[in-house]
């Protein structure tokens, strides 16, 4: 089994992640808190209250976990294509796989990465939603002191299953949308690249960026539900399940609730995924 794809997936994921994290914090806050009027209001309040550091809350854990998550995604994707089409990454330019195969391989990668991602994503969301300024004398300490403390508290209070809160919604969010992700990427690359050639860096950036946007647009409704279910353990008002969360969110806040965070998700998705795909392709090319 080729391992380069796993390593390339990890490094490229980490680069994209740092770039996108401030957008991600604003998104999570807009989706789960009602105190902000919009993107700008949330940014201003976060900055005033918590300084630039506020935007980078909850980042250390995703950086550590992206090693597992993105390498599972790209590694499984590439190896699934190898199993389906009997072509390696290098051979695929000359013999492009069908979109059906790309979609199936993307969904497989998406499904498996969702399970690795679930506990890390839960901790990220919980930490991002702590709006207390860091270490201000006199103010009450935040509920979680950091990722390890957060994981330990959830484990103590709710057991191992608590760490997988929202995992179902996450799997439903990621399985089809990562199929869409790789199909969009492949399709755009092929539009701008003569047959059999390697796409240029510009093409990879644009195709990666739009692949990110397309898959996030499709993923946003379930992303909202996922974030709410992950926070639900903290509040009294816990949801009966995924459907209950959907219905009660829509009843209380209208259908628009399913598009919360869409703009910011798309703004984040372009640079993050452009950089992810560019570094992934470059790493694999340079390793021959
Ligand atoms: C499937 N879904 C849309 C949720 C994610 C697809 C893009 C994944 C990338 N690591 C990112 O964070 O943007």
Automatic annotation (TrEMBL):
Repeat (Solcar) residue spans along the chain: 1-83, 97-191, 199-286
Family: Belongs to the mitochondrial carrier (TC 2.A.29) family.
Keyword Metal-binding in record: no
Keyword flag Heme: no
Recorded topology in the membrane: Multi-pass membrane protein
A Pfam entry, by short name: Mito_carr
Top-rank taxon, per record: Eukaryota
Keywords: Membrane, Mitochondrion, Mitochondrion inner membrane, Repeat, Transmembrane, Transmembrane helix, Transport
Membrane-crossing residue ranges in chain numbering: 61-84
Subcellular location per the Swiss-Prot or TrEMBL entry: Mitochondrion inner membrane
Gene expressing this chain: SLC25A45
Single GO term (MF): transmembrane transporter activity
Species of provenance: Bison bison bison
Stated name of the protein: Solute carrier family 25 member 45
InterPro entries assigned to the protein according to its UniProt record, in alphabetical order: MCP, MCP_dom_sf, MCP_transmembrane, Mitochondrial_Carrier
GO cellular component: mitochondrial inner membrane
């Amino acid at each position: 089994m080729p391992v380069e794809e796993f390593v390339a997936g990890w490094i490229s994921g980490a680069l994209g992640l740092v770039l996108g994290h401030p957008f991600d914090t604003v998104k999570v806050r807009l989706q789960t808190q009602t105190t902000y009027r919009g993107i700008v209001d949330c940014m201003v309040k976060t900055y005033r209250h918590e300084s630039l550091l506020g935007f980078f809350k909850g980042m250390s854990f995703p950086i550590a976990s992206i090693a597992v998550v993105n390498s599972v995604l790209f590694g499984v994707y590439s190896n699934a294509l190898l199993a389906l089409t009997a072509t390696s990454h290098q051979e695929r330019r000359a013999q492009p796989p069908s979109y059906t195969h790309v979609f199936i391989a993307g969904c497989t990668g998406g499904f498996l990465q969702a399970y690795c991602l679930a506990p890390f994503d839960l901790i990220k969301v919980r930490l991002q939603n702590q709006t207390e300024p860091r270490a201000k004398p006199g103010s009450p300490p935040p509920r979680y002191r950091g990722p390890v403390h957060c994981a330990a508290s959830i484990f103590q209070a709710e057991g191992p299953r608590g760490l997988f809160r929202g995992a179902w919604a996450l799997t439903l969010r990621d399985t089809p949308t990562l199929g869409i992700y790789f199909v969009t990427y492949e399709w755009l690359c092929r539009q701008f690249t003569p047959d059999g050639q390697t796409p240029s860096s510009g093409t990879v950036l644009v195709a990666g960026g739009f692949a990110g946007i397309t898959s996030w647009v499709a993923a946003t409704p379930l992303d909202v539900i996922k974030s709410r279910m992950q926070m639900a353990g903290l509040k009294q008002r816990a949801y009966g399940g995924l459907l209950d969360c959907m219905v009660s969110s829509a009843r209380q806040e209208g259908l628009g609730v399913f598009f919360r965070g869409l703009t910011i998700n798309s703004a984040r998705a372009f640079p993050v995924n452009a950089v992810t795909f560019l570094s992934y392709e470059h790493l694999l090319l340079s390793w021959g």
